[in-house]
């Protein structure tokens, strides 16, 4: 009996990569486009790359906003990846102000383009970066220890109101940038576990047993 | 800062991994997927497939290589060579590419950069620039695998590409490619000074010391390595270890 994971299909560019990684890790993948599929999921993944507003529109046009909120309230495991993680927040300041799902209190804001040393920092933040966390060896990070690097591609990052929601950060331009968030059954990764080599696959396997 | 990326570059001709000299004469090295798998297992930060003849023949073979590779390689895969339209890009992303590298088609129709960036995001639009020295501190953009002039100045084209929405620049020195004489770090520096997006240096790595040179003098954010890996002159773990010893910011495995 393999573990089933439901991946929300709202047109996200990384949908198939995420699905491939989960299948590689032994999961049975269902792609969900309807409220009904989301509602009856045992384990849900919300992918996403590109612009925040487009992604929210993709979710909204399929009538999935309320079903996603209802799913989150069931307490079953919920993983957001990249923009899928950003959508968990109250909103984003990318190209104006756009509301998110409001499941994690906080906002998504642009990564500072100036480092703490006053020098310019390249945005988007592209590449591998080391995780900074106190939560090694448990939950999503079971089997992992310092140092572990994962692959990022983003210009915006979540800023949770409650620091207790921070699962991991990374350092960029001297600033702390949110890498992963956890609030109850909700987990979000700003980085791409599906593109982070064996470290990322370990997290995917961990999510399958949460 | 983001880590310095070590990218395994695999040039493809039909079903074969090849290694060229100045993008021209070629030797068959082996099966691309086997090499890609090995580089992934050895800790490559990314895989780059460049189809040397895709602009000339059909692309099904490449699509199949990408599809099979994506099933077992879980780091970003960039694919370039002969992509001409948003539809070509969509097909390649569906096959499993995370990013596409576009050169010739963009020089002929620069709006393609914006079309790809708007449709799929800047993060997957890599502007591939094949650069040939045309004078002191000057380089000209070449297309069709270094065969055709464009009259475009490399630095201006890089700046324009960024404005149009490119998310990264894959910068290959046609002069150095396959020569093992080291990267053209002056070229990398000239482009890096003109743009804020990441620059991937490609072409010419023949010994480890060429890597710190292009990073420290040129400011490269990533390096594409072909010959040294394909012929086992230096493995990825060895390059990573030497880089760490040299305080280059590669990721620790």
UniProtKB/TrEMBL annotation, chain A:
KW Ribonucleoprotein (keyword) present: no
Annotated catalytic residues: 82 (nucleophile), 192, 194
Source organism of this protein record: Magnetospirillum moscoviense
Gene Ontology biological-process annotations: L-histidine biosynthetic process
Functional note: IGPS catalyzes the conversion of PRFAR and glutamine to IGP, AICAR and glutamate. The HisH subunit catalyzes the hydrolysis of glutamine to glutamate and ammonia as part of the synthesis of IGP and AICAR. The resulting ammonia molecule is channeled to the active site of HisF.
Catalytic activity: 5-[(5-phospho-1-deoxy-D-ribulos-1-ylimino)methylamino]-1-(5-phospho-beta-D-ribosyl)imidazole-4-carboxamide + L-glutamine = D-erythro-1-(imidazol-4-yl)glycerol 3-phosphate + 5-amino-1-(5-phospho-beta-D-ribosyl)imidazole-4-carboxamide + L-glutamate + H(+); L-glutamine + H2O = L-glutamate + NH4(+)
Taxonomic path: Bacteria, Pseudomonadati, Pseudomonadota, Alphaproteobacteria, Rhodospirillales
Gene3D superfamilies cross-referenced by the UniProt entry: 3.40.50.880
Any one Gene Ontology molecular-function term assigned to this protein's record: glutaminase activity
Subunit-structure text: Heterodimer of HisH and HisF.
Cross-referenced InterPro entries: Class_I_gatase-like, GATASE, Imidazole-glycPsynth_HisH
A Pfam family hit: GATase
Glutamine amidotransferase domain mapped to chain residues: 7-209
Pathway: Amino-acid biosynthesis; L-histidine biosynthesis; L-histidine from 5-phospho-alpha-D-ribose 1-diphosphate: step 5/9
Protein name, entry field: Imidazole glycerol phosphate synthase subunit HisH
Subcellular location: Cytoplasm
EC code(s) of this entry: 4.3.2.10, 3.5.1.2
Keyword list, A-Z: Amino-acid biosynthesis, Cytoplasm, Glutamine amidotransferase, Histidine biosynthesis, Hydrolase, Lyase, Transferase
Alphabetical list of PANTHER family matching this protein: IMIDAZOLE GLYCEROL PHOSPHATE SYNTHASE SUBUNIT HISH
Automatic annotation (TrEMBL), chain B:
MF terms (GO), sorted A to Z: imidazoleglycerol-phosphate synthase activity; lyase activity
Pathway: Amino-acid biosynthesis; L-histidine biosynthesis; L-histidine from 5-phospho-alpha-D-ribose 1-diphosphate: step 5/9
Biological process terms in GO annotation: L-histidine biosynthetic process
Keyword match Oxidoreductase: no
Any Pfam family matching the protein: His_biosynth
InterPro entries: Aldolase_TIM, His_biosynth, HisF, IGPS_HisA/HisF, RibuloseP-bd_barrel
Keywords: Amino-acid biosynthesis, Histidine biosynthesis, Lyase
Domain of life: Bacteria
CDD domains to which the protein is assigned, alphabetical: HisF
Top-level EC class as recorded in UniProt: lyase
E.C. number(s) listed in UniProt: 4.3.2.10
Reactions that this protein is recorded to catalyse: 5-[(5-phospho-1-deoxy-D-ribulos-1-ylimino)methylamino]-1-(5-phospho-beta-D-ribosyl)imidazole-4-carboxamide + L-glutamine = D-erythro-1-(imidazol-4-yl)glycerol 3-phosphate + 5-amino-1-(5-phospho-beta-D-ribosyl)imidazole-4-carboxamide + L-glutamate + H(+)
Main function: IGPS catalyzes the conversion of PRFAR and glutamine to IGP, AICAR and glutamate. The HisF subunit catalyzes the cyclization activity that produces IGP and AICAR from PRFAR using the ammonia provided by the HisH subunit.
Family statement drawn from the similarity comment of this UniProt entry: Belongs to the HisA/HisF family.
The protein's assembly and partners: Heterodimer of HisH and HisF.
Protein name: Imidazole glycerol phosphate synthase subunit HisF
Species, as recorded: Magnetospirillum moscoviense
């Amino acid at each position: 009996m393999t573990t089933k994971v439901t991946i929300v299909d709202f047109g996200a560019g990384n949908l198939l990569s995420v699905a491939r990684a989960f299948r590689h890790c032994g999961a049975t993948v269902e792609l969900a486009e309807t409220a009904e599929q989301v509602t009856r999921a045992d384990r849900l993944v919300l992918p996403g790359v590109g612009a925040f507003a487009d992604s929210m529109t993709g979710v909204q046009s399929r009538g999935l906003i309320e079903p996603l909120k209802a799913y989150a309230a069931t307490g079953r495991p919920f993983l957001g990846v990249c923009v899928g993680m950003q959508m968990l927040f109250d909103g984003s300041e990318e190209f104006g102000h756009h509301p998110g799902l409001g499941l994690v209190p906080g906002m998504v804001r642009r990564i500072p383009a100036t480092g703490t040393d006053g020098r310019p920092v390249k945005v988007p933040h592209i590449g591998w970066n080391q995780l900074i966390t106190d939560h090694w060896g448990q939950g999503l990070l079971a089997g992992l220890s310092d140092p572990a690097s994962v692959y990022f591609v983003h210009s915006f990052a979540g800023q949770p109101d409650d620091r207790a929601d921070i699962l991991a950060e990374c350092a960029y331009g001297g600033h702390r940038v949110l890498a992963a968030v956890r609030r109850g059954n909700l987990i979000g990764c700003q980085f791409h576990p599906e593109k982070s080599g064996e470290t990322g696959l370990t997290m995917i396997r961990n999510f399958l047993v949460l | 800062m983001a880590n310095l990326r070590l990218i395994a570059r695999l040039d493809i001709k039909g079903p074969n991994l090849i290694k060229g000299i100045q993008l021209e004469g070629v030797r068959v090295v082996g099966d691309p997927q086997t090499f890609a798998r090995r580089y992934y297992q050895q800790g490559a930060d990314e895989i780059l497939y460049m189809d040397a003849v895709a602009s000339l023949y059909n692309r099904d073979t490449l699509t199949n290589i990408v599809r099979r590779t994506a099933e077992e390689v879980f780091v970003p895969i960039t694919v370039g060579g002969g992509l001409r339209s948003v539809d070509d890009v969509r097909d390649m992303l569906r096959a499993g590419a995370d990013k596409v590298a576009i050169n010739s088609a963009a020089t002929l129709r620069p709006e393609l950069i914006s079309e790809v960036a708007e449709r799929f995001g800047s993060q997957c639009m890599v502007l591939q620039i094949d650069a040939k020295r045309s004078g002191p501190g000057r380089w000209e953009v070449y297309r069709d695998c270094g065969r055709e002039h464009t009259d475009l100045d490399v630095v201006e084209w890089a700046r324009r590409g960024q404005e149009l929405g490119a998310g990264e620049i894959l910068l290959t020195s046609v002069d150095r490619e396959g020569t093992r004489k080291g990267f053209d770090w002056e070229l990398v520096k000239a482009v890096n000074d003109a743009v804020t997006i990441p620059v991937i240096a490609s072409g010419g790595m023949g010994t480890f010391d060429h890597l710190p040179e292009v990073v420290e003098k040129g400011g490269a954010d990533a390096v594409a390595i072909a010959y040294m890996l394909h012929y086992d002159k230096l493995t990825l773990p060895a390059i990573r270890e030497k880089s760490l010893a040299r305080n280059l910011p590669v990721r620790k495995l």
